[in-house]
Write a structure and sequence with these properties.
Chain lengths: ~350, ~600
């Protein structure tokens, strides 16, 4: 018999999903909660669903009944490889497998998807697990999707993650992992953007970095991206630096994953975004920032379709958004305080030694 | 030999063929041995070309006035005045800073109440200022150039005046200079404080929003109803009147100003009405300089009607077609307030917002003066001043001292005084003036030297680069910052860098105009490349799709007008008119402040 499920194994990424669970990181993980939040804010995200922590708990209840294998990791990491092995090979509870299967089918039969780890602790402001959990692009077919869901779960127990938890002194028993499954997008251009300048912390600009094809080329440091800065207030593009983007990541349909190849010569030095697209991205960024109320760090993609005259806004999807952490941590004193008379500001500036 | 990359003043060699350039300028404008120890920069903003002997008055007198106001009158704590030197016909300047903290403190005690008084009473003081400057304008307009009659008129005897006309040669010429000096004292009386308010707000915005552009700060400050737009508005009204009166057929591209005016005289009452309105518009609105008033050849529209009459056919056609767009004043106000409100909202505390409101309020208080003083001073007064000097030139030409009226501008004002003394003696003695043999060869040599000096490329700066050069006043007035100095030291071989004055990126064909009188050659949709623009250039902006200038900052005329027209502009490139040729395809990036020949 399957273990009792207190939360459904699968929740769709949709604007009308129940916010009680769809935006709760304890249920859908950090990434899932962020995407759920974006979907609810009316921002376009690739269609998909989240395999919840409920599914993870149900599966682990079969694999490691009582949690002894996991508890042992608190004293020694030696058991991690065996635990990972059991997670990726043990059959899934039928309720989980069928929920994931029908979730996948609802995205389109045999379509390519991205399977992304969404740990309950990741992207929290307390600890960064950036890069420690797996993401798989270009997965197709129900059994492959199920395999990759299990691999994501297993990545919670990879050596680096376990070591990192020991470093932080975090207990093992409350851990869970959700997995986001989304239809693959085929971006013409993708990248990241910050709703404040990463260089100066300026909150009046959106800083955008992008490259041709999948954003993985940028995230992996495989290319120097194009970078643009646009004013939130005037819409002026105040900085544009077009780089030579030597490599291009793209995914091959039908579950054959991602390739990296040399960028065609005619694209290499061409800007990967039009001015209209830069403005549309900045508008989306502002919507997201306003929704969260704090500066954001956003992953985005610009698709080829729908073709013009559809506005660029219709071709933008967001893959992730999280609070910006670097500048948030360094709030300085106020730039200026009011004075008794306005003219006192001038007297103060001109009266002080250079 | 070089320190930090710039040559020392003493290392600047005379330009071959113009070795005698010193004869054009006063002894106190020459670099001294000790000047090698200081940092000087070329004031290309005001003096983009070699200065004729008389025109050196436009540095000699303004720097007397600026320094008097900052150092002695308001007692700015950190700065005394500005020193200037001339080498090979170009003006270099340096600010005299106050560095001793005790001395700064002592000066601040005087500065506080004095500057505070002006800021607190700004509007009423500005009203009084306008009265005083209008008074100076009336005085300069009223100056008579003595015509040296054969005999004095009866009245001189029967009213027992006793003073003959030749006396007034020197007195009235000196009076022109005295009035010019007073005008400059008034000019700087409020301007330095006006800039002070800007500097404070710019500094605040740069701290709160490190990546904000100067042009965006400028857009928050800009006043909308400034009188600098009046000359252009008057032209629009005259164009409308021509259509309303049915005399618009005379305004064609082929008709010169004279053709149109003669034609109107034959048009009965309609023609007379237009000429009447035209005469009203001319005084004062056509006393607008085609430059910025620092050279005698910056003529006014009244001096040369070519500019307004080149613009009129286009305006008339637009009126007729109903496509004439009035300045979108309400929209500009809304845009300005939206931008200011947007930045205000991004501030992180109410405390900062309150400070922002105070500083922006102060800028908007001073803005009308900062914009409008140019019309009163550099345009109206100065074009009248040069007209008077030209009239003295006409007298000297008629009396055989110089060949033609404009030759007078190749004499220093002390030499003109000498020539007038000579003329006075000659008239009273009944003999010919001796200047007729003395001055013409000097003038010929100077004209030749100026031509040669024109081709000299002055280094942007001289002497050792000081540490921490970010004096707010120097930055506001001349755009000289550590960054700018760096770009002087490492010029980009392909791209020209200037101040991003108005946003947008555009490619097109360049039209290089050295003088506003050449605007007739401009084609629709070209990109204007010019040394500097002034309000009289306004009609050009209806035709072009971008603007590039050698000189100017975020608050310069070209910048303000380009933002109004929503076209990309890069100002203060230094040498765009030298590096770009008419017909070149260029890309103007008003976001980054760069210009590139494609």
């Amino acid at each position: 018999m399957d273990g009792p499920l207190v939360i459904p194994p699968v929740i769709p990424l949709a604007w009308d999903a129940d916010p009680e669970v769809a935006t709760d990181a304890a249920v859908v993980g950090g990434k899932g909660a962020s995407l759920g939040e974006l979907a609810r804010a009316g921002v376009a995200v690739p269609p998909g669903f989240v395999v919840t922590t409920g599914a993870f708990i149900a599966a682990l209840a079969v694999i490691d009944p009582g949690g002894a294998l996991r508890a042992a990791l608190e004293t020694s990491p030696a058991g991690a490889p065996a635990l990972r092995d059991r997670i990726v090979t043990a059959p899934l509870p039928a309720s989980v497998a069928s929920a994931v299967g029908s979730g996948y089918d609802s995205l389109g039969s045999g379509c390519d998807v991205a399977v992304r780890s969404s740990a309950t602790m990741e992207d929290s402001s307390a600890a960064s697990f950036a890069g420690l959990q797996d993401t798989y692009l270009g997965v197709a077919g129900t059994s492959s999707v199920l395999d990759h869901v299990r691999r994501c779960w297993a990545s919670l127990y990879n050596d680096e993650s376990v070591a990192y938890r020991r470093h932080l002194g975090m207990p093992e028993d409350s851990l869970a992992m959700a997995v986001v499954v989304q239809r693959m997008v085929r971006p013409r251009t993708a990248g990241v953007m910050f709703t404040r300048s990463p260089v100066s912390g300026d909150r009046s600009v959106v800083a955008i970095e992008g490259t041709w094809g999948l954003g993985s080329a940028l995230v992996a440091g495989d290319v120097t991206p194009d970078s643009f800065t646009i004013s939130k207030i005037t819409g002026e593009i105040t900085m544009r630096r077009v780089s030579s983007k030597g490599r291009l990541h793209s995914f091959i349909p039908n579950g054959r994953g991602v390739t990296a190849e040399d960028t065609p010569a005619d694209l290499r030095d061409a800007p990967c975004l039009t001015d209209d697209e830069i403005r549309a991205l900045a508008a989306v960024a502002r919507t997201v920032e306003a929704h969260y109320g704090v500066p954001q760090d956003i992953e985005w993609a610009v698709l080829d379709a729908p073709a013009p005259p559809a506005p660029p806004a219709d071709r933008i999807v967001l893959l992730q958004s999280r609070p910006e952490t670097v500048w948030a941590a360094k709030t300085g004193p106020p730039v200026a305080a009011p004075k008794a008379r306005p003219a006192d500001h001038v007297l103060a500036l001109f009266g002080k030694p250079q | 030999m070089e320190q930090n990359g710039f040559p020392l003043p003493s290392q600047i060699a005379d330009v071959p063929g113009a070795e005698n350039w010193r004869s054009m300028y006063q002894y106190f404008t020459r670099f001294q041995p000790d000047d090698d120890k200081r940092f000087w920069f070329y004031n290309s903003m005001h003096f983009p070309e070699p200065i004729p002997a008389f025109d050196s008055v436009t540095s000699e007198i303004p720097y007397q006035a600026i320094g008097a106001n900052t150092a002695r009158l308001f007692v700015f704590p950190t700065t005394l005045g500005i020193e200037h030197r001339i080498v090979n016909g170009r003006v270099y300047i340096t600010a005299n800073p106050v560095l001793d903290p005790a001395e700064i403190g002592r000066r601040a005690e005087v500065f506080g109440p004095r500057a505070g008084y002006y800021y607190e009473n700004w509007d009423s003081l500005y009203e009084g200022w306008k009265e005083r400057v209008r008074g100076l304008i009336a005085e300069i307009e009223a100056i008579e150039v003595p015509q040296l009659p054969e005999w004095e008129p009866d009245a001189v005897v029967f009213e027992s005046r006793g003073v003959a006309q030749n006396h007034y040669l020197q007195e009235n010429f000196a009076k022109c200079l005295h009035l010019y000096s007073k005008m400059w004292h008034h000019h700087t009386e409020m301007l330095m404080l006006g800039y002070g308010a800007y500097v404070v707000f710019f500094e605040f915005c740069n701290k709160a929003f490190p990546e904000i552009s100067d042009q965006t700060v400028g857009r928050m400050v800009a006043g909308i109803d400034v009188i600098m737009y009046r000359p252009d508005d008057e032209l629009r009204s005259l164009a409308k009147l021509a259509v309303d009166l049915g005399v618009d057929d005379l305004f064609t591209e082929d008709n010169t100003a004279d053709d149109v005016l003669t034609g109107l005289e034959a048009r009965g009452e309609a023609g007379a009405r237009w000429l009447d309105e035209f005469a009203k518009a001319r005084d004062p609105w056509f006393h607008v300089s085609t430059g910025d008033g620092f050279y005698h050849h910056h003529l006014s529209w009244n001096d040369d009607l070519t500019v307004p009459f080149t613009a009129l056919p286009g305006y008339v056609a637009a009126m007729r077609a109903g496509t004439m767009k009035p300045r979108p004043t309400a929209q500009l106000v809304e845009e300005r307030d939206r931008i200011a409100g947007g930045y205000r909202d991004l501030l992180t505390s109410d405390e900062e917002r309150a400070a922002f409101d105070q500083m922006l309020g102060l800028c908007r208080l001073v803005f009308p003066f900062v914009e409008d003083h140019k019309f009163y001073c550099e345009h109206w007064f100065t074009t009248r001043f040069f007209q008077k000097v030209r009239a003295f030139g006409a007298l000297l030409a008629r009396e055989g001292v110089i060949a033609e009226a404009d030759d007078v501008f190749h004499l220093h004002h002390t030499e003109i005084d000498q020539a007038l003394a000579d003329l006075s003696l000659a008239w009273s003695a009944g003999s010919p003036p001796l200047g007729g043999a003395h001055f013409p060869p000097i003038i010929a040599e100077r004209k030749r030297m100026l031509k040669v000096l024109r081709d000299w490329s002055p280094p942007p700066a001289l002497g050792p680069v000081p540490e921490g050069l970010n004096d707010p006043a120097v930055r506001m007035l001349w755009g000289v910052t550590a960054d700018r100095i760096n770009s002087w030291l490492n010029p980009d071989p392909v791209e020209m860098h200037g101040v991003p004055a108005s946003a947008g990126v555009v490619e097109g064909v360049a039209r290089v105009l050295h003088d506003v009188n050449e605007i007739g050659s401009l084609r629709e949709g070209e990109i204007l490349v010019c040394p500097v623009t002034a309000p009289s250039w306004a009609p050009v902006f209806g035709k072009i799709k971008a603007a590039v200038s050698d000189i100017g900052g975020a608050m310069s005329h070209a910048a303000i007008v380009a933002r109004e027209y929503g076209m990309p502009a890069v100002v203060g490139t230094g040498d765009a008119t030298k590096r770009i040729r008419t017909g070149d395809r260029i890309r103007v990036d008003g976001d980054r402040g760069t210009v590139r020949v494609l």
